[in-house]
């Protein structure tokens, strides 16, 4: 993560200075891999498309309705592909396929070691096709190629390897019961069919970090990517097939909200794992309650960044700038509220605004790009609305605050990095998740005050402290209401560390051993040992 905003982070022998692979077409893939579409099984049907079919029961099929939708490159507005627009009928078929696969001995009776080997193979295939996958993600989502290469695709492979190792270590316990002549033990068993609904901001990585633990624990899956960014998830489904995962274990349905709603309401689905907006998460919880379906939710965030008086201001400026603007601020863990000791607030504001103005805005496929486009016109309009609202409510616009324009930018959804000072805690930009490159700066006088203000939020996903006082770091970290607290660093994700939040940031945890709990049931077994 420390290298995600540098050109050097993604230089390599297979990449030339134009930001494109010498041998990889950004949409079709690598001819050295026999064309990514063909290599991983997604059928390229028409010129200009990557795939338009659904993956159900190991086969690529059109939507039952025959409908298709389109996905576009947010850097240029150019059409990338058409994809199948699934509906409730397709959900019924996919859930039935997943249920059949769950009961099939080819998956049900597969040894934990064999299951782990399949996940390891998926990781190998991700690494084999890493360049093409990264470029595809950049074109479909817009994020800089350094981020898709070093975070999105790399993390996906790491996650599959991490949970490949856990497949052989999912254990029950021997219980100490007080009943004479009785043995009691527990088993950890898969839930059954799980629905995974993923967002558009980190499509490939988030699909991987949901899919890998679901498979490691023996479940079968219906995976629904965001309609704005479906392409890399289709590739992931195809890689699972190529790795040898049995047909029907992984099903991928593309489409809009109708698909997600049908999946959540389906009686044949045992669990929903959702990453996305808090509003949709609340709706999912309500629908799932009808049949007490298991639910885990990773939702919005409004991460505070506390800069203490003794902090290294230059390090805090650089770290906060990257922590706020990676993926153009389209990250639930992005730093958004900056509480700076009053004696350092002016210095911090001047330095971070000046640094923001130097960042190169452009298409993510360009190696020099630091800030790519927002994902869509809808998101551009949303960010613009928040910025205009901040000005109207009296915040001082220090820099940015408008759509970026100029050579190579006019057709894309680019927005200038924006810094506000003089922000009050009750302003909309201080309370609601913007999901864009907008930084709000506040000043504070003492520790108790800043902790109370930082915690005065509906969200509690992440927070960060900038201090050179280790004692203060531990003391403050204990008082902050957030699922993850970072100290003097960027918002990192690692397969071994839990990720999730308090309050409206969601339920449950992803990553680490915690994800295994989310995808298993505990069964108690009593055995009478008396004659």
Automatic annotation (TrEMBL):
SUPFAM superfamilies membership: ALDH-like
Keywords: Oxidoreductase
Ranges for domain Aldehyde dehydrogenase: 60-524
Basic and acidic residues compositional bias, start-end: 1-10, 19-36
InterPro entries in UniProt: Ald_DH/histidinol_DH, Ald_DH_C, Ald_DH_CS_CYS, Ald_DH_CS_GLU, Ald_DH_N, Aldehyde_DH_dom
Residues covered by region (Disordered): 1-42
Residues of the active site: 298
A Pfam cross-reference name: Aldedh
PANTHER family: ALDEHYDE DEHYDROGENASE-RELATED (PTHR11699)
Family the UniProt entry places it in: Belongs to the aldehyde dehydrogenase family.
Protein name as it appears in the record: Aldehyde dehydrogenase family protein
């Amino acid at each position: 993560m420390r290298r995600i905003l540098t050109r050097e982070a993604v230089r390599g022998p297979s990449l030339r200075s134009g930001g494109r692979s010498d041998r990889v077409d950004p949409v079709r893939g690598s001819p050295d891999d026999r064309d990514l579409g063909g290599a991983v099984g997604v059928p390229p049907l028409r010129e200009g498309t990557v795939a338009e079919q659904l993956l159900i029961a190991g086969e690529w099929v059109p939507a039952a309705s025959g409908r298709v939708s389109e996905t576009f490159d947010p850097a240029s507005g150019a059409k990338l592909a058409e994809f199948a627009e699934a509906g409730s009928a397709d959900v019924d078929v996919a859930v039935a396929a997943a249920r059949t696969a769950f009961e099939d001995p080819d998956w049900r009776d597969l040894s934990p070691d064999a299951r782990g080997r399949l996940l390891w193979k998926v990781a190998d295939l991700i690494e084999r096709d890493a360049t093409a996958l990264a470029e595809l993600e950049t074109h479909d989502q817009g994020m800089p190629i350094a981020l898709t290469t070093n975070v999105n695709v790399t993390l996906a492979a790491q996650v599959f390897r991490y949970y490949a190792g856990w497949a052989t270590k999912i254990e029950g316990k021997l219980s100490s019961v007080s009943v004479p002549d009785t043995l009691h033990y527990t088993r950890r068993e898969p839930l059954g069919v799980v629905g995974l609904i993923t967002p558009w901001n980190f499509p490939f990585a988030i699909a991987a970090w949901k899919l890998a633990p679901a498979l490691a624990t023996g479940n079968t899956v219906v995976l629904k990517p965001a309609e704005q960014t479906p392409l890399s998830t289709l590739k992931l489904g195809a890689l699972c097939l190529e790795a040898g995962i049995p047909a029907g274990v992984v099903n991928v349905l593309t489409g809009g909200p109708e698909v997600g709603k049908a999946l959540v309401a389906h009686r044949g689905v045992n669990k929903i794992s959702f990453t996305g907006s808090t509003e949709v998460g609340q709706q999912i919880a309500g629908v799932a309650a009808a049949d007490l379906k298991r639910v885990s939710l990773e939702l919005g965030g409004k991460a505070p960044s506390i800069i203490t008086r003794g902090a290294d201001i230059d390090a805090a400026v650089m770290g906060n700038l990257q922590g706020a603007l990676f993926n153009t601020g389209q990250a639930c863990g992005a730093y958004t509220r900056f509480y700076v000791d009053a004696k350092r607030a002016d210095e911090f504001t001047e330095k971070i605004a000046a640094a923001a103005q130097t960042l190169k805005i452009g298409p993510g496929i360009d190696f020099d790009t630091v800030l790519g486009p927002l994902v869509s016109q809808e998101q551009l309009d949303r960010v613009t609305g928040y910025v205009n609202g901040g000005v109207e409510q009296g915040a001082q616009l220090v820099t940015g605050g408008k759509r970026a324009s100029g050579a190579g930018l006019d057709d894309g959804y680019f927005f200038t990095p924006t810094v506000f000072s003089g922000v009050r805690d009750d302003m909309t930009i201080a309370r609601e998740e913007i999901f864009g490159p907008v930084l709000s700066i506040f000043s504070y006088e003492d520790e108790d005050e800043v902790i109370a203000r930082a915690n005065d939020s509906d969200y509690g996903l992440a927070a960060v402290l900038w201090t050179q006082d280790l004692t203060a770091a531990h003391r403050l970290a204990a008082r902050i209401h957030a699922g993850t607290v970072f100290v003097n660093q960027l918002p990192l994700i690692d397969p071994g560390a839990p990720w999730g939040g308090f309050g409206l940031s969601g339920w449950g945890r992803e990553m680490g051993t915690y994800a295994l709990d989310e995808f298993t049931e505990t069964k108690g077994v009593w055995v009478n040992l008396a004659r």
